[in-house]
Amino acid sequence: MKQYTHAWLAFKAIERLEKSGHSEVNQKYVDKLVAWFKHYRDDVIQGAWYPDAVIKDMASSHVLKFTPVPGTCEFRKLPTSHLMFSLGQESDLFGKGFSIDKNTNLPDRCEALAHALIDNLKMQKREVKGSPVTPTNNHIAVLMFMLSHYIADAHVPFHCDSRSFSAGANIHGRAEGAWDKEVKKYYEIDRKKERFVYNPAGFPLFKDHPSYAASILNKVELELTGRKFQIGWGEGNNNTWDFMATVCQYSYLLSHELIPPGFDENTVTKENWNSLQNQKINFEQYSVAALSDAIDSIARVWLRVWRKYLKWAL
Q1: Could you tell me which of 31, 149, 238, 248 has the fewest CB atoms within 10 Å of its CB?
Q2: In this model, does residue 314 exceed pLDDT 80?
Q3: 224-258: string of b/e by CB count within 10 Å (b at 16+)?
């Protein structure tokens, strides 16, 4: 994904938590997380882009590359509200064998950052004010925004497909560019300060436009409006790693729903990529599933990390 899409997803995840109903116990954790986030919201555009701009581990930790192979494999379960879960089960590759490139490790990166967040929060809580070893809130915020980046990337189906769609017609870049173009078109961005302009509620200021009704971002909003937020990882998943590995499985399936088996970077062009033979979903369906599920996933992981820390701290 591109820079502004990553930042938009992070804000939408917090907005999702703020507007969703929660149990009485979880609501207190949500309230603290939302309030904390808004103190550091000016750093989201920069922080959520740090993995691409500075870390530059795109070939390994932003991806988990699957290749279909003969045989069968278990596909774990996502939360039932996720579109990727329902769409993926319709794939001809669902339940079929796959191999994973051993040099790719996106779920590991997410698990590591989730632990790092909790560890740094605990260190800050334990150390006296002014201690030279205590992490700052700004440091912790950047880790949080970085985590959202890797979570979001898992929802981009091309990040989980061993076919190289960044080559050839660069369908990967075209897809991500379309999302970023919409974020820049429909939300006010202060380019000089590298932050969003905010509405009275503290979220990115929406710029109304006649074309918004037909936009992908509007369809994402409509999807989430009708969807109940689920805090669970999905049946059989117990932690961030389990959940992110499962997301990657369904992301792989969606990539093959959009670009069917038999096509690759040499046969897909900018003219035919949205009308391929045996294509089961189009780019709009692909986009709504990827972006809406990414928002819920970021919200879920952030809340569970925050809750785990506060259960220790309070």
Answers
A1: 238
A2: no
A3: beebebbbebbeebebbbbbbbbbbbbbbbbbbbb
Provide the domain count of the chain.
1
At 184-230, the pLDDT tens digits run: 999 999 999 999 999 999 999 999 899 999 999 999 999 999 999 99
**pTM of the complete model beyond 0.85:** yes
Q: For residue 191, what pLDDT is reported?
A: 92
**Residues 14, 283: Cα–Cα separation, whole Å:** 26
Q: Which two tokens stand for residue 288?
A: 């709504």
Q: Decide: 220 and 292 in contact? Cβ < 8 Å.
A: yes
Q: Helix 171-186 vs helix 216-225: angle between axes, to the nearest 10 degrees?
A: 80
- How far, in Å, are 6, 57, 116 from residue 139 at the CA level? 18, 19, 11
What integer pLDDT is reported at residue 274 of this predicted model?
A: 87
Start-to-end Cα distance in the chain: 37
Q: Which residues contact 198 (CB under 8 A, 6 or more apart)?
A: 41, 204, 205
Residue tagged 């200021």 (tokens): 205
How many whole angstroms separate alpha carbon 286 and alpha carbon 280?
A: 10
Asked if the model's pLDDT at residue 129 lies above 90, the reply is no
Residue 187 sits in a domain of what CATH number?
A: 1.10.575.10
Q: Where are the alpha helices (DSSP H) in 103-170?
A: 106-126, 137-154
Domain extent at residue 173: 3-313
Measure the CA–CA gap between 72 and 94, rounded to whole angstroms. 9
Calculate the CA 221 to chain-centre distance: 15
Residues in the chain: 314
- Give the orientation angle of helix 106-126 with respect to helix 137-154, to 10 degrees: 160
User: Nearest CA to 231 among 243, 220, 221?
Assistant: 243
Amino acid symbol at 215: S
